Amino acid sequence: MLIRRQDRGAPAPSEITPESVYHDRRRFMTGAAGLLAGGLLAGCDDANGTGAGGSAAAGHGLGPKLAALQPGPFATEEPLTPYEDVTSYNNFYELGTDKGDPLKNAHLLRTDPWSVAIEGAVEKPGTYTLEDILRPHALEERIYRLRCVEAWSMVVPWVGFPLGDLLKRFGPTAQAKYVAFQTILDRDNLPGQSAGLSSIEYPYVEGLRMDEAMHPLTILAVGLYGKVMPNQNGAPIRLVVPWKYGFKSIKSIVRIRLQETQPGTTWNKSAPHEYGFYSNVNPEVDHPRWSQKRERRLPSTLWSPNHIATRKFNGYEEQVASLYAGMNLQEYF
Amino acid sequence: MQVHIIEYRIKPALFVLCLLPCAAVFYLGFSNQLGPDPAERLVKELGEWAITMLWITLAVTPLRQLTGQSWLTRLRRMFGLFTLFYASVHFLSYATFMLGWSPALLADDLLERPYIVVGFLALVLLIPLGVTSTDAWRRRLKRRWVQLHRLVYVIAVLAMIHFAWTAKAGYGEQAVYFAILLVLMGFRLVPRIRALQRSP
What we know:
Chain A is an alpha+beta fold. Chain A has eleven helices and 13 strands. In chain A, strands 1, 4, 5, 8, 9, 10, 12 and 13 form an eight-stranded mixed beta sheet that branches.
């Protein structure tokens, strides 16, 4: 059913991938499959064949799941942002504020062992190992647009599963109106968390309304490009909410709390007039310091800057506009 | 230091040195070596070089006072003009590579974005200083020339605000520039304050 709905949200003809790019992608996918097979033969030690950044050595037993990766719904046909760009141009302030810092410092994030606390308004609270978290979920490839609040964007083939499927397993109670997420806090190892002069508070926290969290577009991602999630992209498990600005898609999650009240979110606490709780992509609501009407689709070059118009809800209006029916989006930005 | 060494050795060498960052950043930009979002990188680097040149300009007088090397003053105009040069290229690159010279986007930014307004004002104020930097203008304006060129302190503060305002979080880089500006201003203000305290 979901796949049908996506057809009505089909991209404009101008966005359809040129044939050459499409073939490049096929070739890439074949290559990726080869890499994965190699990873399996090597005992799944490192499904990430590039060595860029580095991911958890054991991959949390992801090898067989990645081998069974299935295409998921809502895929955009726009050209993918290359793997090198997706994994070298990151905002992950725990690893440094420069775009290149997260790749450089990726090794400082320890992802194995990893566990996630599920707390609050659930029937089965507890702290679960990542392996337990992932066990029942089949992995899908979700090719989504990612729009950063800084007016650049990418197209990323994420690997993950619906957040809603996970939440249902733990039995949300009637009090579960919101979901609060928290990133790892490790001041001894993460350089950004020990540096002074930062206006954001750690640990990084984010939140969604329950209906946003249960929406089929919302996923927990454990990889990209068919590989284990590189540390700089938020390994081992991160949120992806494609109709919201990138900072909502919190990385390296250690805590998920269901609760009755709207949770605090890091950027909102840092600059409430600039970053709202919802932070839906919206060209009609400018950031106080810069316009949100357009974006630079990466990779861009000086020869062809690749500027495109930003779409409401990042082009997922068909799927999510109903969540905000009757809300003044200028007020609830 | 002999005048001809300053004019024919040191100045040309510094001139080339000051052009290198601009050449390097454009070379890297057009050969796709500035990452996936080169426009952003290019504009940022050029802006930082504009501020760096301005700070160097402001450092000439304190350095002369500290070292007693009066010939250093002969270099000041060149650094000042390079400040104008980098600020102009910074603005033109932003208008070209980030806005594509779209009148609507330019108007939107220049009228509504405070940090861009402040930066643009700093650039506009630099222009009369560049124009009147020649010896002829200096002679013509006499004492008013000195008054006019005190605008450089206003420009420095505007440039600092513009730069600090671009940060989303993590003010480390801006803090370094700000600390240097404080030292440079301190060299000028502290003697004046002391003088004021001495006179009843």
